């Protein structure tokens, strides 16, 4: 197969890749390629098509600041609407022609002689001066290691691979998991299925969602007076940011948030036994708190059974939990995503180890955008670049602007190799771990994907997103080893 050279190769056409493409074009950088392994743009929003899939951050905030959308039909955009928005941004900003769909990266290594990435895909090879991973954090389905799962004789699907041809009406449906995805999917399944059995390992904290339609008057106002939508965005930004108070500032701040959660439970579940089984025994924010007004009422419906006994095994006809067999026709795994996307296992650094190898030592990166040992590479939403208390899009945009600034200066200064210094990265990672121990993310008394197997912060930025924004406002080239020429005629220094 032929090898194509592209100055910038971006992997992933979701919020990260499309946003980066748009901002690159706005900055006058038009020679780049985005590869996307699926057959559509949209990343997680093209893949998660389960019923009820929607944003759990108000769409005014869960959208690019550089591409506001006055047309959201609801406070929380639904999956089809968010996907349509992303496709529109890709078209409007000229990103679509840069995207090669159905192209999976299978290996990548940095060639020190050419100072280029050599990238293999299932649709031909690339060389690239700069590689950007924008694959996101939730890329692969996590299939639970339950004894007998493969022996199940009914229909089995993970929420990431929803089978829309499967009619659930009149069926007995089991759902394993009660995280953000399950909370959206269960009310939808409850409406059509005959019986629903929910297998809960840990009850989530649920807070009011207060979804509503955006009126035509509001939409008209947003269209004619964009400042009004900016003000709404700013208000939501502040409200959601406040979840950082219990998350990483101090666990004492959890009380008002827990009061909201308890109020929701009391208001929506009248049966004291069910209420007790739904009451979390850990601090709010230890796992992601979930916004929902539909979940508790669905669980209280007569065709829903909540099973809290641990799952023993799965058999041909159903799930055995606490010694009792619960027969189901369909089993839905709402069990989340693997800790590391597949890409992290196939991109090798200068010492031959992959991003995944390094991460398993301990979660690390510099600002979630760079990694020592991976020259000429940036990541979007890398470790410590994700927020537990803010719209992911806010963090993504900060990273995109940092990368665009870097690429602009790399191009302007003729920089051929840049790499974050290991000492700078170590200092940053130490700071991240040191700042993580005060709030509910780590001290909340639960097990979640916010922590790794050793109880360390798995990669959330333990600070305010405006602090993160300020730290990523410009490419801090003085923290990088920078070389200006091709090997043989190298001059070293900071890339200004
Ligand atoms: P998740 O938060 O990881 O939840 C997985 C669920 O499966 C948990 O309830 C977990 O129980 C349960 N589980 C996993 N393995 C199990 C096992 N072996 N036996 C029994 N139960 C098991 O995954 P998710 O709900 O898909 O959400 C992942 C993330 O995606 C969210 O936190 C959010 O960031 C994102 N998301 C966003 C939206 C949105 O609206 N924007 C919607 C959905 C998801 P434990 O709690 O006991 O581990």
Structure overview:
The protein has 496 residues and is of the alpha/beta class. The protein folds into two domains: 3-140 and 338-492, FAD/NAD(P)-binding domain (3-Layer(bba) Sandwich), CATH 3.50.50; 149-213 and 244-333, 3-Layer(bba) Sandwich (FAD/NAD(P)-binding domain). 31% of the residues lie in helices and 18% in strands. It has 15 helices and 21 strands. Strand 13 and strand 14 (318-321) form a beta hairpin. Helix 1 crosses helix 12. The longest helix has 22 residues, at 392-413. NADP nicotinamide-adenine-dinucleotide phosphate is lined by residues 54-56, 138, 144, 146, 176-182, 184, 199, 201-202, 288, 311, 334-337, 449. This is NAD(P)/FAD-dependent oxidoreductase. It holds the Pfam family Pyr_redox_3. InterPro entries: FAD-bind_Monooxygenase_sf (IPR051209), FAD/NAD-bd_sf (IPR036188).
């Amino acid at each position: 197969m032929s090898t194509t050279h592209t100055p910038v190769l971006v992997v992933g056409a979701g919020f990260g890749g499309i946003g980066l493409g748009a901002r690159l074009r706005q900055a006058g950088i038009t020679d780049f390629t985005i590869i996307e392994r699926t057959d559509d743009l949209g990343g997680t929003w093209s893949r998660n098509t389960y019923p009820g899939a929607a944003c759990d951050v108000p769409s005014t905030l869960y959208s690019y600041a550089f591409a506001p959308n006055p047309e959201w039909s609801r406070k929380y955009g639904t999956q089809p609407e968010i996907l349509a928005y992303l496709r529109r941004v890709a078209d409007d900003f000229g990103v679509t022609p840069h995207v090669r769909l159905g192209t999976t990266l299978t290996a990548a290594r940095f060639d020190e002689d050419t100072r280029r990435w050599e990238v293999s895909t299932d649709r031909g090879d690339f060389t690239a001066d700069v590689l950007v991973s924008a694959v996101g954090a939730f890329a692969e389905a996590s299939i639970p290691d339950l004894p007998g799962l493969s022996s199940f004789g009914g229909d089995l699907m993970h929420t990431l691979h929803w089978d829309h041809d499967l009619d659930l009406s009149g069926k007995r449906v089991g759902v394993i998991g009660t995280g953000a995805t399950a909370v959206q999917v269960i009310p939808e399944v409850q409406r059509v299925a005959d019986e629903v059995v929910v297998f809960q390992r840990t009850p989530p904290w649920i807070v009011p969602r207060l979804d509503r339609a955006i009126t035509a008057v509001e939409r008209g106002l947003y269209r004619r007076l964009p400042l009004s939508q900016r003000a709404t965005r700013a208000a939501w930004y502040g409200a959601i940011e406040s979840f950082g108070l219990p998350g990483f500032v101090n666990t004492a701040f959890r009380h008002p948030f827990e009061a909201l959660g308890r109020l929701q439970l009391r208001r929506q579940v009248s049966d004291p036994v069910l209420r007790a089984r739904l009451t979390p025994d850990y601090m709010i924010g230890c796992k992601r708190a979930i916004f929902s007004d539909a979940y508790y009422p669905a669980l209280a419906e007569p065709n829903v059974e909540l099973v809290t006994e641990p799952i023993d095994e799965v058999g041909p006809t159903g799930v055995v939990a606490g010694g009792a067999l619960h027969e189901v026709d369909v089993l839905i795994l709402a069990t989340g995503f693997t800790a590391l996307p597949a890409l992290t296992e196939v991109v090798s650094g200068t010492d031959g180890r992959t991003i995944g190898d390094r991460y398993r030592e301990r979660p690390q990166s510099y600002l979630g955008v760079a990694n020592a040992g991976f020259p000429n590479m940036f990541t979007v939403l890398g470790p410590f670049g994700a927020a537990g208390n803010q719209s992911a899009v806010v963090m993504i945009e900060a990273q995109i602007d940092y990368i665009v600034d870097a690429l602009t200066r790399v191009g302007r200064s003729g920089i051929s190799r840049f790499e974050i210094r290991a000492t700078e990265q170590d200092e940053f990672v130490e700071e991240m771990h040191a700042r993580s121990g005060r709030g509910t993310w780590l001290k909340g008394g639960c097990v979640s994907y916010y922590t790794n197997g050793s109880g360390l912060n798995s990669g959330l930025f333990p600070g305010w997103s405006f602090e993160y924004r300020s730290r990523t406002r410009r490419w801090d080239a003085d923290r990088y080893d920078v070389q200006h020429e091709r090997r043989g005629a190298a001059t070293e220094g900071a890339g200004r």
